[in-house]
Amino acid sequence: MKICAFLALALGIALSSYAHAETVLVKVEGMVCSSCAKKIEKDLSALPSVQSAKVEFKKHLVRIDTQKGIQLEDALIEKTLTDAGFHLKSIKRVN
Fold it and tell me: What is the C-alpha radius of gyration for the chain, rounded to an integer number of angstroms?
C-alpha cells in the first residue's frame, strides 16, 4: 500500500513538472494614461500565478506570462482588473 501511494505521488510530481507556462492576452477598456498601464501591470504581476504582465498601451492589450505549472483563472484576471477600475474586454490564451 505504501508503495502504491509513493508511486502515485512520484507520478503526480513528474506530470506537474511537464506542465508548461502559458501566455494570456487580455484586451482592457478604461486605460487612459500610462499610470493606468502601470497600475494594471503592478496588480496583475502581484498574483501568485503570474510571472510577468506587460501592457501595450496603444493597443489596450496586456500580455500575461504565467508561472510554470500554476493555472491562472479568467475570473481572477477579471476580478483584478475590475477591482483596479478597468473592464475586461476579451481573453485569449496562446502557447
Answer: 17
CATH architecture of the domain formed by 20-94: 2-Layer Sandwich (3.30)
Tally Cβ neighbours within 10 Å of residue 74: 12
Helices within 1-95 (DSSP H only): 2-17, 34-45, 74-83
User: 33 and 55 in contact (C-beta within 8 Å)?
Assistant: no
Domain boundaries, the chain: 20-94
pLDDT tens for 39-91 read 999 999 999 999 999 999 999 999 999 999 899 999 999 999 999 999 999 99
User: SS3 of 59, please?
Assistant: helix
With beta carbons less than 8 A apart as the criterion, state whether 87 and 81 touch. yes
